[in-house]
Amino acid sequence: MTEQPGPRPLPLVLAEPRGRKKPPRHLADLTPAERKELLTEMGLPGFRAQQLSTHYFGRLVHDPAEMTDLPAAQRAELVAALLPDLMDPIRQQSADQGKTVKTLWKLFDGSLVESVLMRYKDRATICISSQAGCGMACPFCATGQGGLTRNMSTAEIVHQVVVGARAMASGEVAGGPGRLSNVVFMGMGEPLANYKATLGAVRRLIEEPPAGLGLSARHVTVSTVGLVPRIRQLADEGIPVTLALSLHAPDDELRNEIVPINTRFSVAETVDAAYEYFSKTGRRVSIEYALMKDINDQAWRADLLGEVLAGDGRGTGWVHVNPIPLNDIPGSRFTRSAEEDMSEFVRRLNDFGISTTLRDTRGSEIDAACGQLAASE
Where is this region: Disordered (predicted)? Predict the structure, then answer.
């Protein structure tokens, strides 16, 4: 009997189709100096770039009619140059008495992405996409089953956050006016496979207005399935964002199956890179672990996870584990773990001395799993 070949290693960055049109250039793609230079090259007053940036990032305004400090004769041209339309909301779902809002966006080329705004008692968090689709091919993920359409631009990534901040400030989310405080790159796509745009977006999010949105870097979380060279590159950027490693299995045999990038970077290599991130930044790493019934939720795997994370003298203080009840996808063999198995998994990790918190799931009555809304469309 001929031995079947194993899964092919995924490339570090998946190439997009040639000839694809680029998203419209937007001020969020540019530094303040580049914004000014662009207007000057177009024969427009360079100082107007700061006014446009103040409207977008400082006042969360993008309607030209509200930009009354711009001359009426030039307003349309200025807005077209630096504030073009990037995406349109085509479908929205709400849950948790209106405190969770999921939006399906259509980009300029028809690509679909999702974002989710979640309001809690002490914070408001938006989960954003970094790619249209995803090339990491994790079989339990709705987005991964659709493949990669394309990378998003820096501005497309940022715009999801600006719209969320505007919705909070204007009181569109249940609970009255408030402030967006946290951003997590945990929507569609692998952020570190779109490294340049992701890093540009992070910079726009944390720079003070009018350069950017003025969020705290410590309130920005960048997720990855484990692109080891990119994790190390991010550690050297000097930006103290939180790194979230989507591990989902503590052993190579299982992780090769459910997180195919593991065929290129093993569990040991991936955890080593995450620990290196902690060592260089001082930021505790989050381990994301989607609990799947009879797949990765066994008590012995909780014990093994504790050993893997604390091994090689690392100890337990560098990491926090977030077991996540899986959002079921219709027709998938991957289903949510039983409550008693999730509780035992958490107990074992806590007994090991590892800080562990079962993730609070939001949006259970809507298409909660990332990619489901786009797939249904």
Answer: 1-26
The reply, when asked if residue 134 is annotated as ligand binding, is: yes
Interatomic CA distance for residues 362 and 325, integer angstroms: 11
pTM above 0.85, yes or no: yes
Residues annotated as part of the active site:
114, 370
Distance CA 296, CA 337 (A): 9
Residue 127 is labelled as binding a ligand: no
Q: Where in the chain is the domain with CATH 1.10.150.530?
A: 27-82
Q: Count how many Cα atoms sit within 13 Å of the Cα of residue 194 in the half-sphere of its side chain.
A: 31
Q: What is the pLDDT of residues 363-377, one digit of tens each?
A: 655 555 565 555 556
Residue 190 counted as an annotated binding residue = yes
Amino acid at 7: P
In this structure, which topology does domain 87-376 adopt according to CATH? TIM Barrel (3.20.20)
Delimiting residues of CATH 3.20.20.70 domain(s) in the chain = 87-376
CA distance 124 to 173: 10
* pLDDT tens sequence across 19-29: 678 999 999 99
CATH topology of domain 27-82: DNA polymerase; domain 1 (1.10.150)
